[in-house]
Write the structure tokens for this entry.
Amino acid sequence: MSTGEEEDDRDDELFEHHRIVADPRQSLLRIDRFLMDRLPNVTRTKLQRALHEGFIRVNEKAIKPNYKVHPQDVITVSLPEPPRDTDVVPENIQLNIVFEDDSLLVVNKPAGMVVHPAYQNWSGTLVNALTWHFQHLPTLPNNEGRPGLVHRIDKDTSGLLVIAKTEACMTHLARQFFDHTIERTYWALVWGEPDPPAGTINVNVGRSLKDRRLTTAFPEGDFGRTAVTHYRTLQPLRYVSLIECKLETGRTHQIRAHLKYLGHPLFNDEMYGGSDLVKGTVFSKYRQFVDNCFKLMPRQALHAKTLGFVHPVHGQFMRFDSELPDDFRAVLDKWEHYVKYH
């Protein structure tokens, strides 16, 4: 007959889910705001409850909900249930490998493929494919379940990613990303013609306070993290423009949030207002033309076109370029034809 003591002990046991070390340059920021930018699928309500119940500790000590994070603080989030198994199931999915050697590979990810397993997408990801084709890929600290990854792009964004095959390569590449020395350019089809046609967007971005799925711009700098995007117009097409974006930082949905803030959301970006008729007339023929474009490219018009970095072994700078995928090119061709004859 049980006394209940074993059950009580089990209920008191906590399992560490997250361990985050604050940056040496971290400014003082309330713990809930700090964690909202760094934990996936978490709400402010859940964070407040976890803080009140003592599931969040800083430097191994209990804290108050209004605690402000300091540089190099070690924040741990522990919960009564164990974290999900981070083992990745290998899947035989074809990869478009642009370059490969003993240290790394560069892949061209198609639109529609999630980069790594996560909530609601536990299979069919780039990482599932990588673990089928490559053995013993390294993993960054606090990045379990994401072997080989040093960066990522959104599910419906196409383009180039570099994958590390060794621990040394991963560390070297991660440092380049941290120092913002990686060269990354994206091609985007946006609504309207940016004015000026080239410039820099230096506006904080962070999780939206209204919708946790979205990233939003905080021009006052009171929320979010520093984000810098350089852009230039490649081809103005009256109602839309093909632009190039060069990332200085790499925040979640940075380009999508910055361009919405600029008033030029990505074409057919439903999450950020780009699937509305942002520019142009209300005539039914024009509306039908735009709808046909949406059907041709049922995703945001964003492609990670170039990727440049210093090779971790031989020290040479390498730059890779990729062609626009068929759906993006088809929509661009339709706009070119429309503007020419209307």
Observations:
- The chain has eight helices and 17 strands.
- The chain has three domains: 5-79, 97-178, 183-341.
- Helices lie at 5-12, 31-36, 44-52, 126-133, 167-178, 254-262, 284-296, 326-341.
